Structure formats: C-alpha cells, structure tokens
C-alpha cells in the first residue's frame, strides 16, 4: 500500500472558486500550520513498542530509542498559480512535480512518507497548494493502490443509509444524479463526459454493475514535471483536482466533492479510494480491516469481469461445478436445469474463461434470496474470487430490495460463517423453498441479514479491504 500522509493548514482563508488567495501573511500562517502539523505527525509516528512487551520478548537493544520510520522533505514541486481572470492568487501554487523516485526509495526502506501541501518552486519559493490537488497528484504519480480521504462525515444513499461500496461506474452514476448540488461534481461530469452512462435504465442494477462498456475511456493523468498535462484537471484549462471554497466550507452537498475526487483518481488508475469519517474512533482500522468497512470504498477493479451468465457460459460453469457435485458439496444439476436457472447465475470471466460462478434465487415476498452454487475454478482458489462474487451477489440482492440471504450447505459452513452467515432453523427458509428441499442430504441452513452494523474488529471479520 502507498503510505502517504498529507498535511494541511486550517487557517481561515479567502477563496475564489476552489482556490485560496495566499498573500504574504497567509503564507506565513500556512507555513507555520503545516510545519506544526508535520512535526506532530512525525512525533506520533516515532515512539517504539511498549517497553513491557520488549522486556517480555528480550529484544530491548535496538528499540530503546526513537523508531526511524518517518520521512519528509521537498518532495513536491510547484509553480505559482499566477493571475487568472484578473485575480492575483499570490503565493498559491499548482502541483507541477512529485519526486516519485525519492518517495519510493523511502517507502522501500519501510518509512512512512509525510508530504505537506506546501510545494517548492524552481525559483526557491514556498507555495501554498490545495490539499486535494496534492493528494490526487501524488496518487496518480505514484500509481497508488489506495487513497484514503478522512472527512468529518459519511456518504449516504437516498434512503439515508451509509454507502459502504461503490464501483467507479456506480460513483459516476451517483455524481451525475446529484451534479446540480455541486459545482465540482458538475465540472467532473463535463470533463469525463460519459454520456453513455445516462442511457442505463434507472434501477437496473444488473446493467449499472456492468457499465464499463459504456465508459468512453477517459483517464486522469499527471505528467511529472508538467503537472496535470497543461489543463487535464477538473475544470477546463485548470490544473488538477482542487476542492475548496464555499462548497467545501458549507458542506451543503455532503461529500459529493470527495466522491468526485475519488472517481477522478480511479479513472487515472488508482485501484481503491476510501472516504471515511474521522470523527468516529477507530474508523481507519474498521475501514481497512473489516469486511464491509466503516466508510465508503470506491473501486475500479473489484467487480471487473463479473456479469450475468449467458448460454455460452454453460460449459464453463459445468466445468467449475462438476468436481464439487461429484464430491457432494453441491447439488447435482442437469444441463437442462442449469439452462433454466441461467438467468440467476453470475460469472467471473478472465481471458475468455469462466473462473467463478454463483447463483441468486430471489423470494421477493419474503424479502429474502437464496445463494447457491458458489464455486471457483481450482487454479484460482485462495485469491479472493469467492469473496468478490459473494459481495457482488449481496449488492444485487440489496438492489432488488432483499433484506436477507439464506443458503443450504453440507460441507462449507465455516466459509459462510466467517462471512457473516449464522445457522438457522428450516422455518427461517421461505415456505416455497422448503417444499423443494431434499431432506436426505441433511443440509444445514444459514442466514445473513444484509447491511450489518459494525461493532468492531473481530477474528471472524478480519479481512484486508
């Protein structure tokens, strides 16, 4: 994971649009605030392990002093924003270069790199850069796996529920839907210009999850030494992705600006962006080390290659599930039965081959659905494909208005228990399904309520997000 912490000042500032105006007094205050925050971060990251633990294990020597694992410096090159539309922005800077090689050198030596929002010009000036422009520039230049954005709240759906996961296509759709609430979101839509997404049927979750075919290939880019490619930013002719001004201060649109920033860097190759509520104790740990997280994750790769099964996939599905049928793990199905149920199957395709499959059979009147036939090809097991597919099925179930999932199993109970299912009685199964249960198999019944609350990190839900 790319470990980078951006320092920002909290001095009250004057804004024109998204950028602040930095006069000499403001620059002094910004430098003082950034320096204080940087020193505080370095101090918090410097203590070694507790001495009692070291004494217990007999390794006191090399840990007796400070832990040398924090690096900071002039990693950020910038240029003056200058005069725009008659407005002199003073010492406000635009990100021009990220010293990738020096940052990587320190990351490779297991250091945590602290990058301030204060950039350095080629003429020896210190410039005050927008924090989000710095973050997006660093993420793109470093080709980061993750970008974590800590804010003061959460992102909710239209029903007031926290959105825990969004694909980049879903984020694009939501930004478009709410674009009138945010100048930044409206500018994002104009820049990305994904008109094809508007053609998706409202509420057609199966289409929206496969919206990649509608994306026109826009990709944010950062040309090191030139900045955001002479205007490849969120506004026409602007540099980078800046968030600021009244829109950020008022928070009238929630965190739609941060969501647009997340989608922006995902377009540029960052795999995951996490937007988490910093006012919640332990939110970062909950987000990174629990299955559903505590904030909102936007990802470009989680569901890639996952789609509804077609008749052409029958042989691939059969190849995956046959060994499990032979061993008694799955109920044996004929080709005719598979074809009849094919509309309920989802598959993961890679290089033209089916590597995983699962089925969801909804029971709308009971607001429940049956998960069945989850299987991963032997060569791809142990790489999270089963988790990815189960996540996908759960999101489809939620989109259908289902509140719980159930399943029947004989030999895979442990796997499902670790993923939030709990054993239940046969009476918890919809009556329509109970009539078709083969009692001679002796199956156990498990159920999971969707959208679980987060109580903390436990052994059962410990998983890297």
Automatic annotation (TrEMBL):
GO terms for molecular function: L-amino-acid N-acetyltransferase activity. It catalyses: L-glutamate + acetyl-CoA = N-acetyl-L-glutamate + CoA + H(+). It holds the Pfam family Acetyltransf_1. Residues 304-451 form the N-acetyltransferase domain. Its EC number is 2.3.1.1. Pathway: Amino-acid biosynthesis; L-arginine biosynthesis; N(2)-acetyl-L-ornithine from L-glutamate: step 1/4. InterPro entries: AceGlu_kinase-like_sf, Acyl_CoA_acyltransferase, Asp/Glu/Uridylate_kinase, GNAT_dom, NH2A_AcTrfase. HAMAP family: N_acetyl_glu_synth. Belongs to the acetyltransferase family. ArgA subfamily. This is amino-acid N-acetyltransferase. It comes from Urochloa decumbens.
């Amino acid at each position: 994971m790319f470990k980078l912490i951006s320092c920002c000042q909290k001095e009250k500032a004057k804004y024109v649009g998204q950028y602040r105006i930095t006069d000499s007094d403001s620059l002094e205050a910004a430098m003082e605030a950034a320096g204080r925050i940087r020193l505080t971060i370095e101090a918090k990251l410097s203590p070694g392990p507790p001495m009692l633990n070291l004494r217990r294990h007999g390794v006191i020597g090399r840990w007796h002093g400070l832990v040398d694992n924090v690096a900071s410096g002039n990693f950020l090159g910038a240029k003056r924003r200058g005069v725009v539309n008659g407005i002199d922005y003073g010492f406000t800077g635009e990100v021009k270069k990220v010293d990738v090689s020096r940052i990587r050198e320190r990351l490779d030596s297991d250091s945590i790199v602290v990058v301030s929002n204060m950039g350095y010009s080629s003429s020896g000036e210190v410039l005050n850069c927008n924090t989000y422009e710095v973050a997006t520039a660093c993420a793109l230049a470093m080709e980061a796996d993750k970008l974590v954005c800590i804010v003061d709240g959460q992102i909710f759906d239209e029903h007031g529920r926290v959105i825990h996961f969004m694909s980049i296509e879903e984020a694009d759709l939501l930004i478009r839907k709410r674009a009138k609430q945010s100048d930044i979101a409206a500018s994002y839509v104009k820049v990305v210009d994904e008109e094809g997404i508007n053609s998706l049927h409202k509420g057609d979750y199966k289409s929206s999850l496969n919206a990649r075919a509608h994306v026109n290939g826009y990709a944010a880019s950062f040309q090191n030494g030139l900045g955001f490619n002479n205007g490849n930013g969120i506004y026409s002719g602007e540099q980078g992705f800046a968030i600021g001004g009244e829109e950020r201060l008022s928070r009238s649109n929630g965190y739609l600006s941060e969501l647009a920033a997340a989608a922006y860097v995902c377009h540029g190759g960052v795999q995951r962006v996490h937007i988490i509520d910093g006012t919640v104790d332990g939110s970062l740990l909950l987000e990174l080390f629990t299955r559903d997280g505590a904030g909102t994750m936007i990802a470009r790769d989680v569901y890639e290659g996952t789609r509804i099964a077609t008749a052409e996939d029958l042989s691939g599905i059969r190849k995956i599930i046959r060994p499990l049928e032979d061993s008694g793990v799955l109920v044996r199905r004929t080709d005719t039965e598979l074809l009849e149920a094919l509309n309920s199957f989802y598959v993961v395709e890679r290089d033209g081959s089916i590597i995983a499959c699962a089925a969801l059979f909804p029971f709308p009147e009971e607001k429940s659905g049956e998960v069945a036939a989850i299987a991963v090809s032997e060569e791809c097991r142990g790489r999270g494909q089963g988790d990815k597919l189960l996540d996908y099925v759960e999101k489809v179930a939620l989109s259908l208005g289902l509140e719980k999932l159930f399943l029947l199993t004989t030999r895979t109970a442990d796997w499902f228990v670790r993923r939030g299912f709990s054993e239940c009685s046969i009476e918890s199964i919809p009556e329509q399904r109970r009539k078709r249960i083969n009692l001679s198999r002796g199956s156990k019944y498990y159920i999971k309520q969707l959208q679980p609350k987060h109580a903390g990190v436990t052994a059962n839900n410990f998983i890297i997000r």
